[in-house]
Amino acid sequence: MSRGETTDTIQAPLILVQIACLIALGFFGLITGFFYAYSVDVMRGLDLIDAESAVSAMQGINLAVRNPVFFATFFGTPIVGLLAAGSLYLGNHKMSAGLMVLAAAIYFFGAFMPTAMVNVPMNEALAVIPLGDSAQDYEAIWTTYSPKWTFWNTLRTVVSLVALLFAGMALLQIGRKHN
Known about the structure:
This protein is mainly α. Helix content is 79%, strand content 0%. The relative contact order is 0.19.
């Protein structure tokens, strides 16, 4: 561009684009790790104890997970991914922007929505099970709940990992000539 010329495009500085991508990558990694821990450790551990204790523990976990740090990660991941995609687009990294949008969409439709449609309703149903009630068949409750919940959680884990990989590919594409 010669002196006196103006441009009507906004271009984000590379360092800001990289920071936005790293933040998005961090969010995708955090939520993937969160889901992963449940599938490989938490649910397996709960399956090893008596059913009433497992129901009680899961009720407590479901209350404890409702906190600002989890909410920021769970709800923020697709938003941060889209903000990073916007910075990539403004930085003229269109292929990377597309990959980041894809990462956000994969997470939203493959992890966020199943959480809202399957895992949360299951957790809400479990929350109303009274503890210490000899009339309750805790074994039947837990053996119905745990495998289905874990299946859907493992799906969320795998999908979140795929989204994380796409976010990583978006970061790696920055600066490539074909981008």
